[in-house]
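Entry 14. Two folds queued back to back today. First construct below, sequence then structure tokens.
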Amino acid sequence: MDSNVVRAIVTAAVWLLIVVVLRALLNLAFDRYERRLAETDPTVAARRRTTYGFLLRMIVALVAIIGIWSVLSIFPATQEIARAFLGSAAVLAVIAGLALTTPLGNLGSGVLLAFTQPVKLGDRITVDGHTGIVDEISLSYTALTTDEGRRIFVPNTRMVSTTLVNRSVDDPRRLVTVDLPVRLGASLGDARTITMEAASRVPQGDELAIYVQVGDVTEKTAWLHVVAYAPFNADVSQVASEIREEAVAALASADLLPA
């Protein structure tokens, strides 16, 4: 086997080990730091986790890039290409152009998010019509888990260039909505009362702030729009299912459902 190939394999293995060990040591140091502080304020702790998580990704990515470059520099062809590229007068123009493109733009926006922290891990936010919990702020994207259980990835540039609502600041509750049909001609007042009582009987019903409004009216059906504010840790889809099940049964017993 070519000696350069052997050197490349060994170098790659060494750098891979360095990345793994560095990540483990940083996580260990941060965990010890957190335990020593014994922070009682979850907001302050979330801010530190947000900043640390982003910095950890940057450090690991930087070390990985250095490792990859070390492996590639073993081969003469790669060395010549690198020297020619770095020695050219176009390097500054290329770097300036890349800084304005999406990848590095997302990276720079991620740095702003990590340090200015308009949002932090665990916050419930609304951005571009999507509402969810911030699970991760990576080098390129911010990941949300929506109230419907979907996984949304928002580019970091979008997070710092558009208006977003941090719902954890004033009202951390989660929104649950359910639409229910009512027979046209039936008493909507009775239907609203029955629906309200049924929704309050679901598990955790005493923790819900429930509102029932009359929505759209079609040729044969009137629709009730149920809005409930659930606790922050509630399963929105499960709560909606339970409200729908209880309310439909109650409306059916009262003969208020469409034929």
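Second construct, same run, same settings:
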Amino acid sequence: MRQFLEEFLSGLGYDCRSTAAGRPGIEAYRERPVDVVLIDLRLPDIDGMQVCRAVREQNLDPIIILMTGYPTSESALEAYEAGADDYLTKPFSTKQLHLVIHRVIEHRRLINENERLRQLLEGRSCFDQLVGGAPAMQAIYKLIEQVAPSQTPVLITGEPGTGKSLVAAAIHRASGHSGLPLEVLDCSSVPREDLEIALFGVEGEGDGFASVGALERAGEGTLHLKSVEALPPLIQSRLQSALQSQEILRVGASETVSLRARVVTSSSAQLLALAERDEFRRDLYYRLSVVTVSMPPLRERREDIPLLAHFFLEKIARALDQPAERIDHDAVMALMSHAWPGNVTELEETLRKIAENGFDGTIRLRDLPGRLQREAEPRNNGVSAANVPLKEAKRRFEREYFCDLLRRSKGNMSLASRRSRVGRPYLYKKINDHQINPDDFR
């Protein structure tokens, strides 16, 4: 049985070795640790529970699967208490063995990946919800750190949903004035006739109504003007004058007050193009855009999607007061294949809808919206290859190739081997590397 299992698992591509008793097995593990340990409960020298505990004491965290021909509920419970990850009852088929090993490896991979992502998200300080490790995002973090301590005006550009407000908040937090106000005024959500008062305020006469505008209300903190392209020409002119003189004149007032706030603006429009068509004041554009932060669309930083997905699932879990869900490899690949026209906002809302439906702890491909499942099919995945590193593109292509091969061969490994003109051991190794189960295609 031991020799058969070693040959079978080697044929699947695993690097295997075996021992005929417990103590030699413990010694072999100490000399050369492995990822997965299969232990028979009854051995010639010591029982499998002792081996399990001895291996666990090495603190190298392997996956342990116990095998027994005499199952009881007590022995199963003891196996898990001894540190086993799973429990196989003899006799078992090679299919059962393969599925159990695949399942525990995938489960451990998910745990490790979530831990890696959690560590990446720790210690972010001023960047808070601004998540990403792509080169474009690294450049943005560096730019924020450089420009934040000054009073230099910053213009943040990018498609809707890319996180422009998060950049403005990060600039404010990194400025050293995080205890001061961060005032936000969305120019597109205020009626045009009310924008002047909303921005500059209004002076009351006697007992008349008086109001402080956003420029003044921000004090020595930061004013974030969202959708600045929505400002009418007259207010653009007034804002240009206020920024130039560093003084605010309320509507109906005769005396000015000092402008002390830093002004950060954002726009989804091409402000320079509007300025060149005289649809936005050029002098105001150049004053606002002393430093420009251009947020990339999500489709141009797909490598950040696993990190973002993990971050959003943690955030959603806290809001719903439930454990955070994991997301498996195929589902992640499907998310990375989607163009996300709504960018990061669309990704977050998609995951929120999925999480609110409730799952068993893992989001799989079948849980995603139908359009994402269809886009994940092999014929469509190549579209995004140019947006990922060459190594990742090769890995995706190879996985798609073997999935398509098994689909056409209906999971028949002999037929797949002949069609691909590669030996069965190599084929088993590759499908194992890509965590593909032939039974899924039968």
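Quick look at the second one. Residues 379-385 have pLDDT under 50 and may be disordered. The longest strand covers residues 63-68.
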